[in-house]
Prior knowledge:
The protein is mainly α. The chain has a domain at 4-52. It has helices at residues 7-17, 19-52, 72-83; strands at residues 58-61, 67-70.
Amino acid sequence: MFRPSEFPKAAAEWFRGNxxxxxxxxxxxxxxxxxxxTSFVARCELxxxxxxxxxxxIRGRSNxxxxxxxxxxxxxxxxxxxxxxxxxxxxxxxCGHRMQQHVGCDTRSSYHVLL
Length: 115
C-alpha cells in the first residue's frame, strides 16, 4: 500500500529519472512566468499613465488613432471661476475656489452640506 509520507521520496526518484520531463516542466514554468511578468508590466504602465493625468481632463484616441484631450470640464470650471461671484454656491465639488454644496454620503462635516 502507498502511504502519503512516501510520496515526496517517490516523486523525487521519478523526477530525477525523467530528464525530458524536468526540461519540459522548466520550459512551461519559464513561459508562464514570462507571460505573467509581461502582462504585469503592461498593466503597471497602463495604471501609471491613467493615474498620472488630471482627472478633469479625459485622454483618448480619435477614429484615426491620434491622441485627443477632452478638457470641457476644466473649461467649465474656469468659466464658473471667472463668471460667478465669490460667494456663489456651486453644485459641483472642487469648482473654482467657491463655497460648494455637496449632497452625498459623507455628510459628517458641516462644511460639506451648506444650507
